[in-house]
Amino acid sequence: MLKHRGFPGRLPGTDFQFTIRRDNKKGVTPLISRERFKDRRPADRRADEGFMRALWEHFGDAEFERGNLDAGRLSWFFGREVVAVEDPFDPESYEALLKIDVNRARAVYPEIFE
């Protein structure tokens, strides 16, 4: 599992996790597309914005390997602002390639992409 050096482990000052420390010995947590509802708590919204900002600052519009990025946090973006590069895509692979869909991400988080 690739560890993304320099990527923040969590949202500063919170327990919102962005990365994992080690691979899951019981199996890789699959990426799924989770729906974000309009009534999410402000803290959850800040965590989403912080994670997207970290993705953009770390990877930009380049492809990146899933590696040690937290599957739970990544799943809030998967299929919308973050898309699979490979076809077929293996949602249970730490080596899966992903990419930010800049147009969709900019529409949701315009302040990040100014």
List the helices and strands and how they pair.
Blueprint: H1 42-59, E1 64-65, H2 71-75, E2 82-84, E3 97-100, H3 102-108
Antiparallel strand pairs: 1-3, 2-3
Q: How would you characterize this protein structure?
A:
With 114 residues, the chain is an alpha+beta fold. The chain contains three helices and three strands. A three-stranded antiparallel sheet has the order 1-3-2.
- So what's the overall shape? globular
> How many individual helices?
3
Portion in strands? 5-15%
Q: Report the count of strand segments.
A: 3
Order of helices and strands: HEHEEH
What oligomerization state is this entry in? single chain
Helix share of residues? 25-40%
Uncertain segments of ≥5 residues (pLDDT<50)?
none
Give the termini separation: 32 Å
Mean pLDDT: 92
State the major sheet.
3 strands, antiparallel
**Secondary-structure class:** alpha+beta
The radius of gyration over CA amounts to 13 Å
Question: What strand order characterises the main sheet?
Answer: 1-3-2
